[in-house]
């Protein structure tokens, strides 16, 4: 089914619409927040952003999802999920007001980043509760359709929120007071998601009482062993593991592209003018958003024509070739187009990876497989930013970085082809 058809099917359920509305409002707020933090960390007129600071900023934005991700399920399976969706937005709203106050007070950056980490930690619980609640609001036969539309719709809402953040920054200004207003606005909008969640019955989203459920301390210890078991199971399902590996490779190369683009716009194209640089990066984000949306539309058809494995290879190889053609001239116009290309390729690979893991991994291991998936998805991006901090020059113009990105995609496609071909041969 297409995205539109899936969305039309699941929206028939009243409880799903309420949970879906909670997600859209919260992720719209995320877009405002992420834009505010990005502007403060990378494009503040008072700061001279370096590649190392870009790495630190991206780590703050993503590490809570990598580190906390596998462990939050222990608590999501014990606390009322509806109450998490009601209470977490208020906690996050307070933390955002604290973060806004820290910006206005011009405290050292580590204090602000600490507040941002707390905000994102609370958000990780919120998003996990949303995911765990989904089976309670849609019948089993519609769960696949619901899983197909909710993350994508949330991503689109985040992009829209980032767009509003850009407009608000133009109104509020790029100084500390403007950033503080953005953070406060995000907090107010996020709190609205609690009002949507309150329309659901307290018992609707579970979890149901289970006397055999282990104590939280024992469950936390089991998470680590469970991840190891999940990794071993994935190794025995090499197509799923290879597709997840392709996704992880994309995230690493995309992370390098992000760091490269930020430094290029900040110093090479805009010659240090923070506002001009931010507008340029905004165009790249728009390009990536359009590419992501297009991938959602075309991937169901391309995978029907080529098959999942061949489409992953085409997307990865095409991303490398086009990135080289668009970025190596180091012309400003090439980066938004490259963002579009990587948006199409990245979302295509992610959809294929999601589908392959759901298709090939046994149900009893599926949750652990997706925990590993989330860790790779965010961790590889942060690792890429760290590598970029080492290799990028002050103005960002690095032929070496572009070559790594351009060669990395086709090389990953080739390795993926070798693994999947060998796996099919063994089955035959």
From TrEMBL:
Signal peptide start-end: none
What compartments host this protein? Cell membrane
Keywords annotated in UniProt:
Cell membrane, Membrane, Transmembrane, Transmembrane helix
Which cellular component, as a GO term, is one annotated location?
A: plasma membrane
Its protein name is MFS transporter
Topology in membrane: Multi-pass membrane protein
Transmembrane regions: 20-43, 55-76, 83-105, 111-132, 144-167, 179-197, 252-269, 281-299, 311-331, 369-392, 398-416
Q: Check the record and name the InterPro entries matching this protein.
A: MFS, MFS_trans_sf
The keyword Glycoprotein appears for this protein: no
Highest taxon of source:
Bacteria
GO terms, molecular function: transmembrane transporter activity
Q: Which organism is it from?
A: Nonomuraea longispora
